[in-house]
Amino acid sequence: TYIPLTVLTLTACPQLTVLTLTACPKLTVLTLTACPKLTVLTLTACPKLTVLTLTACPKLTVLTLTACPKLTVLTLTACPKLTVLTLTACPQLTVLTLTACPKLTVLTLTARPKLALTVLTLTARPKLTVLTLTACPKLTVLTLTACPKLTVLTLTFICGISFLLNAFELISCVVTR
After folding, report:
1. How many Cα neighbours within 13 Å face the side chain of 156?
2. Where does the chain cross the membrane (predicted)?
3. Fewer Cβ atoms within 10 Å of its own Cβ: the N or the C terminal residue of the chain?
């Protein structure tokens, strides 16, 4: 039988290593806290998910979100081994907060036709090497601070949509292409 799960909170799940959620049509909020062995989180086709919060998942290395069209807030705190964050087809994302995720090397945000993201601030990302933002016509503030290994920065926007970026700061970052 079908269970219309709308809120899922997982706290102190010491043996959880991989979590894959696919086709969760009613899920709106997902919170993971203190999952010490979680290494991979994959969410696919969660059409009503609006908020995803991960806190204290020290072994999480890969987070992939695909086809979560209502996701507006993504908060990652104390995920020190996170290296890859990929968001595809999450066009309503407006707030992305990354705190204490020092090993992040690849951040990819892609949405068709566009991403609603308005502010992106990445601070103290010492291992970030690639940042790709595709179809972010509403982005008004992009701040990258202390990203010394950033070598590839790709900003691609859809033709015909006005580009609103009015503040772009690179502080202590070295971009080679």
Report:
1. 11
2. 152-175
3. N
- Return d(Cα 176, Cα 158) in angstroms, integer: 24
Distance CA 146, CA 127 (A): 10
Give residue for tokens 């290994």.
149
* Token pair listed for 124: 């103290």
Question: What contacts 173, CB < 8 A, 6 or more positions away?
Answer: 144, 145, 146, 147, 148, 150
Q: Where are the domains of the chain?
A: 7-173
Q: Which two tokens stand for residue 130?
A: 């690639």
Q: pTM of the prediction?
A: 0.81
Please state, in angstroms and rounded to a whole number, the distance separating the CA atoms of residues 137 and 129. Answer: 23
